[in-house]
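Morning!

This is the sequence you dropped in the shared folder:
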Amino acid sequence: MQSLGLELSLRQELRLTAEMRLSLRVLAMPSADLAAELERFAEEEPWFRFERPRLRSVARAEDVDPLARVASVVPLEQRLKEELRLMGLCDPVLRVALYLADDLDERGYLAEPLDVIARRLGAPPDVAREALVALQSCDPPGIGAEDLASCLLLQLRDEREPMKSIAAAIIQHHLPDVAEGRLDAIAASLSVSLEQIEEAVRRIKRLTPAPAAAAAADPVRPLIPDVVVRQTEGEWTVEVTDWAAPRLELRSEYRHLLQAGGEEARQFLSARLKRAAWLTRAIERRRLTLQLVAEALVRRQRTYLERGPLGIRPLRLADIAEEVGVHESTVSRAVKGKILASPQGLVAMERLFSVEVAPGWSQEAAKARLAEIVRGEDKARPLSDQAIANLLASEGCRLSRRVIAKYREDLAIPNSFLRRRYAPGFASPHCRRHSSK
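The structure's back. Tokens below.
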């Protein structure tokens, strides 16, 4: 005879609220994107005012780190993989997620059905689905969608209610009606006002049907520092700029209405204030996190501030995360696309994290030393990759000839044959052809 009983079990589960998701998204935004987000918010909610912070000159053009200029044009697949690796996914899920990041079409959609990919990789369906959900949580919003409808729905994940539900219903069931202008019919079908439908349609029209193409078309971000580091009386000070922590304010006339208006007006404005409060808190958390991470970076990379790229020490995200007391993914979001201004000029904050390639040598320092060696070599007898490797080894940085060749290619430095051939005083064949005319 079977016995019946109760069994209790405890399970920890992290559920992100809409406000938490917004906070994480704001933290990862470069400052130019955050300003654009607040401008869009002020357009949608005209009772709030946003003014772009004034910019101050902090560096001469010749002081700008070239890598800061290209910080935002890393290939999308690479950015997605970096974000996935920071999520703490188990190995089977990460393996499928990295494959999916490589299997997107030009729009950013899955190139094949998920079940086909799962069978090819020998992955259980639930593992494949978890991997897809992880990919779809990456930036840009809408990436990894299976079709147009799911792409648009993914971009609504941070939208407030009831607008989120109305827009989702339109995307799922009424896009042909939108195309033909039958908004009255949509309002009747969803039992909402025509004004709500019009607002939802305006929101849908701002979504991106091809997130990968839009990301590829993004211009290089302006070189606006998020953090300024100065030396005052022998001490390094860190300041998060106003540009990195902009402000959103309720217009004075609506503030008066909130205080002296009727109950209906107060309820209307209170609902709007809630979303603005979320944004304001997210921006303040972003400022505090960026301040803490930047201060820790400055403590760890003082030699960079004093010597430039040659002084960059080996440093991992985990080192800063442990010092600040946050997760690695938080540090990654905090430095993503952010620019630091110092006496060394402007630099992408991500560049101050570098793997150790030899005892006490970071990859960035090794590359900087390689470039320095090539600049100082005899142009008539340029050094081979092996000769450079030997010279670095004598300084305590032992790297193989293949690694030297790879670093040289990363720095767009030609091999020794081409450096000799096109050195000053040695005209290239192209130049000789034109000079002989």
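Headline: The chain is about 55% helix and 5% strand.

More detail when I'm at my desk.
O.
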